Amino acid sequence: MPDDECAPPKKGITADDIKTAPMDYRFPATNQAKHCYYSYNEFHKCAAEKGEDAKDCQKYARYYRSLCPGEWVEKWNEERANGTFPGRY
């Protein structure tokens, strides 16, 4: 008998189990580009004020990392390093 048959059944998914950004009603459409961009900017604003390791900032980091394509993040990071990023932060 496999071990997993003896394991207790899993309960439903909770909010803590969700590993992506929650629904934001300011961005109701399926296209999440604005939500991605907002989360990226909010992370860098928060990091400038509180430091990258602050718990509040890590929330935004998790959101933009799950919403944004990696190519966008790489491009924005390069633009920030070069001082050409169009965002406010």
TrEMBL record:
InterPro entries: COX6B-like (IPR048280), CX6/COA6-like_sf (IPR036549), Cyt_c_oxidase_su6B (IPR003213). Keywords: Disulfide bond, Mitochondrion. It holds the Pfam family COX6B. It is found in: Mitochondrion. Coiled coil: none annotated. One of its GO terms (cellular component) is respiratory chain complex IV. The keyword Protein biosynthesis does not apply. The keyword Cell inner membrane does not apply. This is Cytochrome c oxidase subunit.
